[in-house]
Write a structure and sequence with these properties.
With about 700 residues, the chain is mainly α. It is built from 39 helices and 6 strands. β4 and β5 form a beta hairpin.
Length: about 700
């Protein structure tokens, strides 16, 4: 350990201990290091994250003040930088095993033993611990909030990530397993409104109060839990909190001998339900008692595989399949492992693999999953997406509905189902909004779902609700993302894209050194008026104001290319700064674009053979279309059906006007059309009445290009 470094860190933290906002950013600044360097050095020297290390210094000082002074817990919480006394009490209890009040009168030997339970963890095989604990806690939650319900809306709950009170990786998987299984079980209860895992991840090491978390997630209740292991003992602490008042409604602390867990689970569950006077339906009881495997090794392998697959990176997805295969070696009847493997193969469909082969493998694993357990909702969800991919619309709908009937609280399934209503031959945009509303409520911190929800509100002409959403959830968006949404709202209200340029110019008057505004203004000139001169003018200003920003560099390069300043574009591409911002794949794509726009399609085709970008199928399709290779285009479209935007491009290039207009008119939302209007592929059609009607319908002005 680098003692001088840790001493310095400790002294800095102590000097700032009353500041509740003191964290890694400020620490890094005072150390003269970058944030990433600070994170790595603290982890290397302590084995802890920066937030954990700072929190433990605060708690150690709090313990000293409790023993040596007569200050109240609230006063001590303030002195050591905890903005919420309830959070201080919770953190103190988790670390010392006792509340601040009990700690004051406890002898040192007992204190040491309590901390020892947290820090001296050893490996055991918990077997059915997870499933037993899930059953108990799920009953507790349903019981409490069922009797507390005061309106017709299902009670909403956020189950925060379980805290692993040790640094051992195996115990972290156990903690995540408890959390994940609890979420999965609760999500299947129709009478609950359960926040999604993706949003909850944001609060894994958060110092925010329960009230703040509840407000951000629109959750009435929050469940916190921690798990500790010591030899053959397990301690689980859970607390249910009323988010609005930050009041602890109930808490339970369990100390178990692992060998006794199975035989006592039914007895404890019975005692809890009797005590709370809860009557569950037979189906709800069945759901809570179900678990997909008895084998903890298989269970943990599936957890690891799922975590890998979520990145959608090809190496991670391939490794996830290996995890699932190993899980099935331990439990050949693990239905969920088959369903997860099916999903991973489906993800690989556009990662360079033979599309039909991986989809057929996915279908095979789905059949296996459903043969073992016909109630695996994920299997129906993946199968629905396969039917979506193949434009089998009725079967797609049938499988989505089966998935949602089993699990109504999966935000991703609700989101995917919303897309079905947007892209099927006869759109139902109101139904799409219905499911996006559910998805956004379940996963409120997802930008992807939030963007889709906002856009669908605009499509359905619900500007007021879109504005309310933006005001409420603007904290998850960047300045640029907020500006784009404000811009769309103004255009939607006025039904005129030219208002966008006025809006951005007014912003620049108030903030003339903001590169984001020049970036957006330049792109607006390009996309709305097809004005390459002003596109280049304002992107040049944006790049000069901030040349370290990827978007500024990317669109400045784009503006040079579109305005046919090819030599300057190549000089920019070769610059040290440009290359520092782009990875190898992005550089190859930029060169492809440069040669494509010059009309050198054979050269752009050569770049597409590079292994890094050979799977960028849209660029390949555009290139083959320009080369007149209709067979190659049809082959790629059949294996990788693009959305309407891309198909409109392809048929514009192929001069198949009816198909081009068909897909232009099937696109959803006026805010997508401006990107299409700026491209040279549509130049031959700009003066046609059908094209001008399309512009008017989508609030785009008629210009000299259309006369």
């Amino acid at each position: 350990m680098e003692k001088s470094f840790i001493d310095k860190v400790h002294n800095i933290v102590m000097n700032n201990i009353t500041n509740e906002n003191f964290g890694v950013a400020k620490l890094a600044s005072l150390l003269g290091l970058s944030t990433s360097q600070t994170l790595k050095k603290v982890r290397a020297n302590t084995g802890k994250s920066v937030s954990q290390y700072i929190r433990e210094i605060r708690l150690t000082e709090a313990a000293h003040l409790i023993k040596e002074t007569d200050l109240t817990a609230a006063e001590i919480a303030f002195k050591v930088g905890f903005g919420s006394q309830s959070y201080f009490n919770k953190a103190f209890r988790k670390y010392y095993g006792k509340t601040p009040g009990d700690y004051k009168f406890q002898d040192e030997e007992t204190i040491a033993k309590n901390i020892d339970l947290t820090t001296k963890q050893k490996s055991t095989k918990p077997q059915k611990v997870i499933f037993f604990f899930i059953f108990i806690i799920a009953l507790l939650i349903i019981a409490y909030i069922s009797i507390d319900k005061t309106n017709n809306q299902p009670p909403s709950i956020a189950v925060l990530p379980f805290k692993n009170m040790s640094n051992e990786l195996e115990n972290q998987y156990l903690a995540d397993g408890l959390w994940d299984d609890l979420l999965n079980h609760l999500s299947k209860i129709n009478g609950l409104d359960v926040r999604s895992r993706q949003s909850l991840e944001s609060y894994r090491e958060s110092n925010k109060s329960m009230t703040e978390i509840g407000k951000e997630l629109s959750a009435a209740y929050i469940l916190e839990s921690s798990i500790q292991k010591f030899e053959n003992k397990l301690r689980i602490i859970t607390q249910l909190i009323d988010a609005e008042s930050d009041k602890h409604l109930w808490s339970h602390e369990y100390d178990y001998e692992l060998k006794d867990i199975i035989k006592i689970q039914c007895e404890i569950a019975k005692q809890i339900t009797q005590q709370l006077n809860v009557i569950l339906t037979s189906r709800e009881k069945e759901i809570l008692e179900m678990h997909s495997t008895e084998n903890i090794t298989a269970y943990q392998l599936v957890l690891k595989g799922r975590s890998l697959a979520e990145s959608h990176k090809i190496d991670d997805v391939e490794l996830s399949i290996e995890m699932y295969e190993k899980a099935l070696e331990f439990d050949p009847n693990y239905a969920l492992a088959y369903a997860e493997m099916a999903q991973s193969y489906f993800i690989l469909r556009n990662k360079g693999y033979d599309t039909e082969r991986v989809i057929n493998k996915s279908i095979g694993y789905l059949e296996q999953a459903l043969k073992i357990d016909p109630n695996i909702y994920k299997a129906y969800a993946v199968r629905a997406r396969i039917f979506y991919f193949r434009s089998k619309w009725e079967k797609c709908r049938e499988n989505f509905e089966k998935a949602i009937a089993i699990n109504p609280n999966d935000a991703e399934v609700q989101y995917q189902y919303s897309l079905y209503f947007q892209y099927k031959p006869i759109k139902e945009l109101n139904k799409s909004l219905e499911h996006l509303t559910i998805a956004q409520r379940l996963n409120p911190l997802s930008k992807r779902i939030g963007n889709a929800y906002f856009n669908c509100l605009i499509i359905n002409q619900k500007n007021k609700k879109a504005n309310e959403y933006l005001n409420k959830m603007n904290f998850i968006y960047s300045e640029k993302e907020i500006l784009i949404k404000e811009n769309i709202l103004i255009v939607s209200k006025n039904k005129d894209w030219s208002k966008s340029i006025i809006f951005l110019k007014n912003k620049i008057v108030k903030d003339p050194k903001n590169p984001i505004l020049y970036n957006l203004l330049g792109r607006s000139y390009d996309e709305i008026l097809n004005d390459d001169i002003n596109f280049l003018k304002y992107l040049k200003i944006a790049y000069e104001l901030d040349s370290t920003n990827f978007s500024n560099a990317y669109f400045y390069f784009d503006a040079l290319v579109e305005s046919k300043n090819f030599d300057k574009a190549k000089i920019l591409f070769d610059s040290k700064n440009f290359k520092s911002l782009f990875n190898e794949k992005q550089k190859l794509s930029a060169l492809w674009y440069l040669y494509y726009y010059q009309g050198n399609y054979m050269k752009s085709r050569e770049f597409m053979s590079d292994s890094l970008i050979k799977n960028v199928h849209i660029s390949l399709i555009y290139t083959f279309a320009q080369l007149g290779d209709k067979m190659a285009v049809d082959s790629l479209l059949s294996k990788n059906p693009g959305y309407f935007f891309e198909k409109a491009f392809v048929y514009a290039i192929l001069k198949e006007k009816d198909s081009m207009y068909h897909y232009m008119n099937r696109m959803n939302g006026f805010f997508l059309m401006k990107g299409l209007n700026s491209r040279g592929e549509f130049d031959p059609y700009r003066k046609e009445e059908r094209y001008k009607a399309f512009l008017r319908e989508n609030y785009l002005p008629i210009t000299h290009w259309n006369e």
